[in-house]
Amino acid sequence: MAAHEQASEERPSAQGRDDVDAVTRAVLTASRLLVAVSARSLAAFEDRVTLPQFRLLVVLATHGDAKLVSLAERLGVNPSTAMRMLDRLIVAGLAERQINPANRRETALRVTPEGLQLVEDVTAGRRREVASIVERLAPEQRSALIEALTAFAAAGGEPDVSGGGADAYPLGWAPDPAAPQDG
């Protein structure tokens, strides 16, 4: 293949670049909407939990009991930061520490039933608001959105959960098979 042919294949066409820019703008606009939906769903509980604390509850609810270090890794924070967030959630009755009876040096961190209920309530609020928005779309737009968002998620490395039912991963986070299992 000639050098000029190879170079033209590597560079996106002007039309392709315009498409990428248009799609990027559309995704960013949709992202703003989804962030607003998320913020509104948590607003009713803002007197009890902050967004970072809610993320911690979601990780515990999704992945189950955890040790502090693995919890901090999943959140992308330092263990001391995770501990401060956890301490506040424990005071609020939304999370708890429990000594591992098999190894008394280990402490398991878990979401309480009240914390799990809060996660479920926030998630249900998000689901209702998103469903309300989706209902305003024509059926053919819904089909196109499913196809586009499924492809977008796959391109971003999100696992497909379409066959798992509506509640397979209600928070949108599948358990990470590569993550160390806490016990």
TrEMBL record:
Protein's GO biological process: response to stress
GO molecular function, one term: DNA binding
InterPro entries per record: HTH_MarR-typ, MarR/SlyA-like, WH-like_DNA-bd_sf, WH_DNA-bd_sf
Keyword field: DNA-binding
Residue ranges annotated for the HTH marR-type domain, each copy included: 20-154
Superkingdom assignment: Bacteria
Gene3D superfamilies membership: Winged helix-like DNA-binding domain superfamily/Winged helix DNA-binding domain
Record carries keyword DNA-binding: yes
Region (Disordered): 164-183
Pfam families: MarR
Protein name, entry field: MarR family transcriptional regulator
Species in which this protein is naturally found: Streptomyces brevispora
